[in-house]
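Q: What does the predicted 3D structure of Phosphoenolpyruvate synthase look like?
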Amino acid sequence: MNAQEIPVSNIKKQIADYKNDIRGPYYRIKWFCKNGTIRAPKDPCPDSIGGGIQHASYKEEVIKLGKEHHIFFGEILAHTNPTEFWDQKNNHSRLKQYQIGKYLSSVDNGWILRKGQYYRGAVQSEDEETWGVDFYKWLLKTDTNLDAHYFLIRQSLRDIPHDGDNNIAQAMRSQSKIIADEFPEFMDARIKIHGKPDKTDIQLVTNFRNKYENKLSPELKKSFTKLNATLAKFYEPVDVATLQKKLNRIKTGDSLKKKVASFLKLYKDTDAVQVSVPQIATILYEIRKNITTVTDSNDRLLTLDLSNELESILLKKTQEWKPDTVKELMQKVYTLSHTAAATGLIELWEWEAVHNDLQKYSTKDELSIASLNDFLYTTRSIVEWSAAMGKANYEEIVDIYTTFEPKAYGFIDDRIRSTIALDLGETVSTLGSFIAVKSSMSNAVMNINNQSSVRGLNPGYALGTLVVVEGSPENVEVDTKNIYIFQKPPSDLKPVAGIMTVSEGNLVSHVQLLARNLGIPNAALSNENLKALLSYDGQRIFYAVSDKGNVILKPENEMTLIEVALFSKTERNKNKITVPVDEIRLDQINILNMANVNANDSGKLCGPKAANLGQLKSMFPEQVVEGLVIPFGIFRKHMDQKMPDGIKSYWEFLNDIFKEADRMRVANTPEKEIEVYQLAKLDILKEAIKKMPLEQSFITELENEFQKVFNGAIGTIPVFLRSDTNMEDLKEFTGAGLNLTLFNILSKDKIIEGIKNVWASPYTERSFKWRQQYLLNPENVFPSILIIPSVDVAYSGVMITKGINVGNEEDLTVAFSRGAGGAVDGQSAETHLISKNTSRLLSPARQSDYLRLPVTGGTSKQITTFEQPILNPKNIQNIRTLAQTIRDTLPAKTQSDYKGAYDVELGFKNDTLWLFQIRPFVENKRAKSSDYLTSITPKIDDTQKIKLTSKL
């Protein structure tokens, strides 16, 4: 997208104007000639220049919107350049906008074409279809597009006209939504059609219309007639002969064609669904796996259309499959998971990573509770991966559209509902409910349905106001006393009482580590769960997550006396800790070579990042970069300078803030007022530090050390500037991600400016609030700075030397994303549980953008796809070896009695492993050992056997 800020208010006005304009976004009808010229409506393109086609031209402001902001309204495909429409350099934004436009038109009475849809001659359907066929012939020529964009291409086929096709399923949902918006009594029926569609919907709608016939307006009656016709069309019996005709048009790909022909010969619409649905899933998978054996691009288009039609049949059939036993339910889950792979919701390699275990479990006659839970964990993950595929493809452009057209937010939900993910989620929830009963592992989340989709990530408990955020979380102003439910965790979360997220991001992001460290209850839930909890938004609730992951969410007035006692002042104060400053050395006012510091210097000369990386440098000299350390003493010396007003020094100004806060507490000033006062003063200090003059002797020393250690002059080698304070990696407080890291800074001026910005970062609102809430002496923060040369890694991430949520103390939890800074900022990362001999995929990456570090400085945004895993077997073995070396040698090298796990940041460049940070992995022992949390943790006999012939 163009970097210029999108003029939201202007676009909103344009949309309103176009809705009431008989020409919508169009200007007038013109001739568009093959040679690129445009002619008046009564001046056709002559045959001598190749002829042309006639359709509407765009209003000038529509053209301007596309040129300046890459926003395209009312797109007419005919005469559009295929390469520009595919829009690869903008992550296919233009194609996706066309799809969103189609969706908005269906749910909002034409949207910007509310009146313009009747502008005769504006769009010629024959020309649009001809263009669509030509577009797909061009697009499908290369195997790469099919491998990388299978999901997107199949989805686009439902929207781009090319063979008389239309999206009946979307029409069904859109028409029911329009009726419910106009006639609220229809809402329950609409929810049924959206959530659990089946053949009975035809009678449901008929009965409803008959019941309310006298209350319906003429327009609503027309809408019901249209919906009934759509439902009848959607559920009409399968015409195998029509499918056979389409197959006969395919000329190449003999092997795949024979398999499809064999399937069609055997398929009968009357077959039992437990037979027919797996058959369809299998042939869909064969099509996906072997589509590139079809050599002709037109044949590929026909094959993909056939695949979409078969998927539509499966979506209807699977709603009729009502398993009676646990075994049949598991077989249905397996089949629908297989379909997810077959239709592009998960990648082929992801399916290969899990399907053997799933198949093994689903064919047994008896399983232990532990094995059932393992099957549930994996299949619930597949549901999440599937939903995340839709979000990964469309979320960026939907978020942009939502700023000026809120209805666009429903697009992703509509897409996911049109896939097998809907019924897969329902079926997995049914299995989860059965297992929960058998293992006494149940949630108590208000009174919502499908509670087995809710699973705890971090133990803890909280009392606060529930805030349900359905849209983007990035601009939400959070309050420490609230409990938040987000679609995805914000990248820069301030302290909150508790969180739940639909997209958990990854287990080792800074947000997740802070939550785990500080005992903030944290859970994952489904999108349906979030919607169900919207009705409780604004209520005071109690929220708890046990160590085993079961979740309680209930109104404050239903709390037990034990739960009420958890929030006494004495109890809550136990969570605060003191930052040690007794050994800090502020007399060290020279820049240090990182190779000369080690773990013993942490909290004395510098923070733990530099101290521990210096330690790693001595242990892994070839895998750790050189580095410079600006110690605490240099910061402290600069703080003795006078503030811009010339009255107090920076240090005096800082300490006076906390003295005044203490005085206000003695005077019983409300804590909120004290916080407002402190934040206002700290903001003044922060901005003053950013402009603070640096001593010339320090700058000269920096230049000399830069040349000496990095073998290049300052300004010639891009570097990272990492804040490294004494308040990080304490025994009870991690501080992960609270302060500033600057990526790939090249110029001398920006490095100088960056040093001051990093020094100022502990005084930001977010950093201060976390410290204030959990530290007894938050004023005693001292920042040092670690300067290291950039390594332009292909992928990077975090390793925790233990299993988190799954696995055990001997395992490794590893999360990686492409590019630099992977996994720490909450990206949807590729996560593995690595044991001594095996590697288990916990989640694949679903982050489409990533950062690379050019030698010219700054960052370069890149786009990726998901058809290949990030980590290869060699990487995984290197990670195992590294973890074992750290466990064996680090405690001895540091003379430490630390027995816990480590949190390691690392990356790979040309398959070479680079180490960037190591710190203790800090968990909240209070949350883990809380008597209350122990009391709500179910005692599960994992060895208990369950007969899979058991009735549901």
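A (community wiki): The structure tokens above were generated from the sequence. DSSP finds 34 helices and 26 strands in the chain. The first helix runs from residue 8 to 19.
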